[in-house]
Here is the input.
Amino acid sequence: MSAAVARTAWPRLLAWALALPLLLPALWLASAFATPAPGVWPHLFAQVLPAAVRNTLALLGLIAALSMLVGVGLAWASARYDYPGRRLFDWALVLPMALPGYVVAFVYVGLTDYAGPLQSAWRALGGAPSAFPELRSVPGAALVLSLVLYPYVFLIVRAAFLRQGSAAMDAARSLGHGPLSAFFRAALPMARPAWVAGLSLVLLETLADFGAVSILGVDTLATAIYKTWFGLYSLPAAAQLACAMVALVALVLVLERIGRGRGRHAGPQLMPPPRRPLSGWRGWAVSALALAVVSLGFLVPVAQLLAWSWQSRATLPEVGVPALNTALLAAMAAALVLAIALAFTLLGRRGGGDRIVQAAGFTAGLGYAVPGTVLAVGAMWLLVAAERAMPWLGGLALSSSLVAVLLALSVRFLRVGHEATESAFQSLRPSLLESARVLGVPAGARLRRIVLPLLRPGLVAALLLVIVETVKELPATLMLRPFGWDTLAVRIYGYTTEGLWAQAAWPSLWLCLVGLVPVWWLVRQQR
Here is the structure.
């Protein structure tokens, strides 16, 4: 082997050696078909899967429509018009991202319960209890999840509209199209890569959701996997069902790639056009819509959490141990993800843009699109097989330890850390390092005085994003954690399954506070 071949071979081998353990939890699911579960599948086909598939598809359709309607509409208003309160709403409309879907779900369940304030007021006004809208339904779940998922569309599409310029709209108007027709014929098609990307994120998050649909009593494929494992006590059947979820996720990714096509996010004009003042009733109507969305998605849930916490202030639940467990898990997962992400980034640069090295990093990051329930089953199935194949471990239970949780979380959130790390390295210009080397600055000093100060903001951002995602993650932690080892998310889920809304409010406030960190970072990036 020549020296040149060796220089390209070792980054490739090391990159795929890092990627393989991250791919195994999902790939190993296919081995579950070698373990038949004949006593479970008839029950699944008869009692579980018809409703789960129907509800999953209905949720995907409803949430896609609602997120597109709200996200694209408000993004267009923010990018092209100046309405009352626009500067405030530009960042306030991102705030619902700080709340986990399962927190918003149990807040609204508590508000709309029979003894809740909304239904009590409805009966006081003479309304029949049977006529009150039922939140525990597919439309109710779609509405709740849309309140926290529309910002994915809003953020991406708004950035595309700002870069788009006004040439296409002006051309459409000059051809006789009205404002609405010009928007649908020119502006929206040009922003197709953006809204397709935002919509794909919404659909993937919908498939991955477990907590909100469980609280709202809607059976989906994610809850079916959980019930198969913990209700029917069949890990092989759960793994086989998880394979179907992987296929559905792959379909979403393929449709997203086809939907983007060869479109561009923006036209040749880089500077956004001046915003048109939107005065009178039209401006106030847009402001009222933005206020309603922010209120329903953030202000009302936070206000209710504060009210419940204040009402039970004398008997607030103990959250010290779950908070400590959450911090420990988040720190370990973030450190592991950041180390792997840095390794992939450095190997990519060392390989000089080698496509095989880049493919390893991209493939390892696909776990972000896989639901936590699927990764939990895959990690458990893999580690159980490893324990059986390696009896020399001496009874070390990998599958019932934090190793399983960390494996699933690393696969789930590697892409978050990798993309932030790659962005950080974009600010590292080779000319700076070359100039320092020519001036005789030692390698250690170059690392300390140039590389680390330039990379620090991006690496800190990557660390924060992974920590926040880990803190809010529910299904993987719930299904894989050691017995009795609770985090804040698991404790919240435990309270909500028993209908203890007030007890769940206090730990939920802590999660919301942590969730504001990435929102603050995203708002800074938008400015």
